[in-house]
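Problem: given the chain below (512 residues), write out its structure.
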Amino acid sequence: MPHSVSPEPSTIEDSVIPDAPDSANGSDDSATESPTNELPSAGKLSSFIKPEDLFMTDDEEDEEFPMSSAPSENVKVPRSSPRLLPLQSTSAASYTDPEVMLAFYQRLFPFRPLFQWLNHSMKPSNDFGHREFAFTLANEAYLRYLSFPTSDLLRKDVLRLNPARFEIGPVYSTNPRDRKTLRKASTFRPIAKELVFDIDLTDYDDIRTCCDKANICHKCWNFVTMAIKVVGAALREDFGFEHIMWVYSGRRGCHAWISDKRAREMDDNKRRALAGYLEVIKGGSQSGKKVNVKRPLHPHLVRSLDILKDHFQKDILEDQDPWATPERTDHLLQLLPDKALNDALRKKWDSAPGRSSSSKWADIDALAKAGVSRALDSKALLEAKKDIILEYTYPRLDVEVSKKLIHLLKSPFVVHPKTGRVCVPIDPKRLDKFDPLGVPTVTELLAEIDEWDAAKIKNEETEPEGEVKKMQDYEKTSLKPYVEYFKTYVANILRDERGVKREREEGDAMEF
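Solution.
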């Protein structure tokens, strides 16, 4: 995806996790990586995972958001920063306008929670101070290796430069701004970053029938829902990760950020191994069979099939109707193991051109039971049908994003430049209700603040004066539930990080 940047290809061979869902004969269709320009409490692991083979042995009130629409006296910015603007949004305002973006950063972007999330503490530390940020400016200039000691300084530079978006990279061994002053370049290296995953609906173009390329609808968003369920279950149940945040990309996919300390400290080999563990679909859109897994199925795949079986019936067979055309029907027949059965199915379907995919799927068992093939191996047919379900439902991850510490990924809560939608976190407990087309755009949010303020003034004119609760601007908008969810997520990370630090200190105190 264009929002993710990896500066150099890796020469390290993929590691293999013991007992991972192995593939045979599958070709690895890795994404080509984009060059960059420098311009002005573990959970219980499942019995089939060996953790030693994969891993090394009080929220204050947020004052970053202005409380009203008159900001200029209360917010300090560098002299070179643009003057803070009162809101004057209209329905015709473009989300690409610099003034619109500046108003969004001034009033709605949650800088303080973002700092706490990346810093893992209320007190500034190298976890944030040595973190790389990259800004994409309105003129397409791309500024890398930016770093900020505090959330206030990040906010000031964002207001000064007003980027179209910004990305988050790893924590480095030294401050990224000082990298050119080091005597040895080798001393500047990435040492930590959240484990990340990228799901892009363009990777489903060979099986989704409702949309293609950058277009999405509610039907094909179900592929993302399935992926979140499967990957989330594996991360929690197989690896014991707890702090997993899914973020809508603003257009056609989503990203996962895993913030557990063990995940952040994984080196590239471990990241590649974990990405390989989750990679089942292999081969490009023109390849044949994309699922080639060993039998008996790995427990992760057994669980995945259990999660996906209902989705296959409703979201694939009914909504996508994946075998409606002769070309797509031919692909289905190629995935079945018996020639006589295939010939009988082809004859039946040729005589009924409008037959639905649900009916075609039922025909496979019906003709098999009718004895159209005396040599039919029922076990091989069952395995083939499971592989077909996986091919049409299992997550298609852009694994290159996950393999390396040095990879940058678009920050949560930035605005997608093509759609204007905010990259909001997705609550897994409300996953089936998440509507990507209902996520607010930046201009809608600014208009909501105007409407709220206008209604407040009108109420003050007709109602007696009383104690008025101050509201932050995001609370006046449909962005509120997403910010509140993010704050809760961050608070849980801070709680666990304090517990780890306390345990370490108590352990040190026991030494004599």
